[in-house]
Design brief:
Layout lengths: L1 H21 L11 E8 L4 H12 L4 E7 L4 E6 L2 H12 L4 E5 L1 H6 L10
Helix pairs in contact: 2-3
Length: 118
Amino acid sequence: MNARRVLLRAAALAVAWCCTACDGGSAPTPAEPITVQLEIVGMHCGGCVEAISAEAREVDGLDSIDVSLERNSARLRVRDEPTAAEVVRAIESLGYRVTRIPAHDAAASPPPTPAVGR
């Protein structure tokens, strides 16, 4: 009986040590993607839309992008804020002027229409 008690105690200590060492073995839960609305100045054709879309898709963490020539805007779904900033820098590297539309203004505006040539 004493040996059994020692084994149970050892097992309990092993579990307690593991749980403190690895936070219980639970994997971190990924954050919900965020939606970001951008105003893009300088687009004039479907080629601009395609160039912006292609450049943005090179950024790791971009879930989706919908670029609207008619509204001079883009709606992004990204993993986090740093990814959103990286997408903005990527679009600006093409020569476009990009302004982020605050969330409360973006919620009030209708969604962008499908881009030309899509």
